[in-house]
Amino acid sequence: MMATKIIPPADGAYAYPLLIKQLLLSGVRYEPGREIVYADKLRYSYQTLNQRIRRLANALTAAGVKAGDTVALLDWDSHRYLECFFAVPMIGAVLHTVNIRLSPDQVLYTMNHAEDDLVLVHDDFLPLIEPIQDQLTTVKGYVRLTDDTASETSLPVVGEYEQLLSQSADQYEFPDFDENSVATLFYTTGTTGKPKGVYFTHRQLVLHTLNAVGTLGVYQGLPLLRSDDVYMPITPMFHVHAWGVPYVATLMGLKQVYPGRYEPNSLVRLYREERVTFSHCVPTILQMILGCEAAADSRFDGWKMLLGGSALTLGIASEASAKGIQVHSGYGMSETCPILCTTYLRDEDLEKSRQAQLPKRIKTGTPVPMVDLKIVDANGNAVAHDGESLGEIVVRAPWLTQGYLKEPEKGAELWQGGWLHTGDMASIDAMGGVEIKDRIKDVIKTGGEWISSLELENLLSQHPAVMSVAVVGIVDEQWGERPMALVICEPGTYLDRRILETHLQQFVESGRINKWAIPKQFKFVAEIPKTSVGKINKKLIRESAAG
Fold this sequence. Notes:
Rossmann fold; GMP Synthetase, Chain A, domain 3
């Protein structure tokens, strides 16, 4: 190891730990009167937020939660979720954000695997928890989360959330401890096996937050989040801390609007009434918003959206832009906390019209500061940054998960060679711009050639009658694999195989794709399978096609 010079600190010098509690210091100083809003149910100030976080810490402590314990949370996106993001890890416990869209068997597995001690559960999820309560081997008690009148339950509840807070003091001295202590835990569902536990430390979350404040706020080419913005997440808070933005918004003292259950018409109403200016979501949610009844006669001027989780097609981006939404792409994964890349527009891009900017806006983006990112071949060798050569994205950054809970062998596979392997195939151009071509498992291999399912989805989405599309590879005796497309038509339109083949032929003639990239099959469907976080479930589509 290289010899370096280290000067010991002065006697009495304070070794400032990077703890989540430090993120609460600035928002209430700058904007104590700014609001935290929960749908149409509740609103209060930052001063009240800080008091409620202390009350929650006292209530949790009184319920027996201590440092090192795990607190599970099942709730819609709410003010309670925001309060738990802070109070639970700030007392030294671990917050397990339970994926409420998993099957009961998967929820049971994740809660036992996490060894949850206390469960905070919204009334809407009692039917999920009550049948499995006898199989939850480590849970010692439950707290009810109620929006209306509490219903009966067989769970051994400690009390109701608001009642417990009202009975608790609004002062709590949050302790210092090791910044490498685990703060949060959630489970990601892969293509095979059981869900894997992804965890992050206080240090990682603080560094990710500070980086996101700078990345989303200071660059003229990435003007997403400034001090006067109004923030509303449309990415579930159980999934990677809603991309970490609630921590960012609280640090900045922004007005925050939590929509509860995602219902497109309600989201449009909240956008209007609360004057929302920044949100993030997956493309399928954006498409739901654009297609809902309330959006029919609405414009969304001034609404900035960061899209991630799956590829943003030019078709959806064009529709959103025509309504006034400023779209930006973001890239990351559960294991990366998550932000790795975002759209970055240079001066020459900003001089173009909004429509002319869209091809740049839908690309994966540029790695954000402090992210060391490269593409490698199957042998781990670096691939040229020429915009054409393909390789797997591997990364290093100070906020990447260091493994999977209780699964060291899978963690070692994730971190093979000292780099986190994303499983995404991409090219990088001479300016450092990343463009994901596909997931390694979703690349279609036909006759020795690779076809990007994402590229085909993007091209098909540009037909005006295509509302949504998913492309996967299916077994072909002659070529190994051939593309198959699932297509949802816009209401009141007609499509068939011949029309879409003709549409794709123009891209064959221009050299964009080869003729064998035209799908072998087109299936016109009413719904495309999604995962629990709203991504296209290509694994399920392939399994259905094989069956």
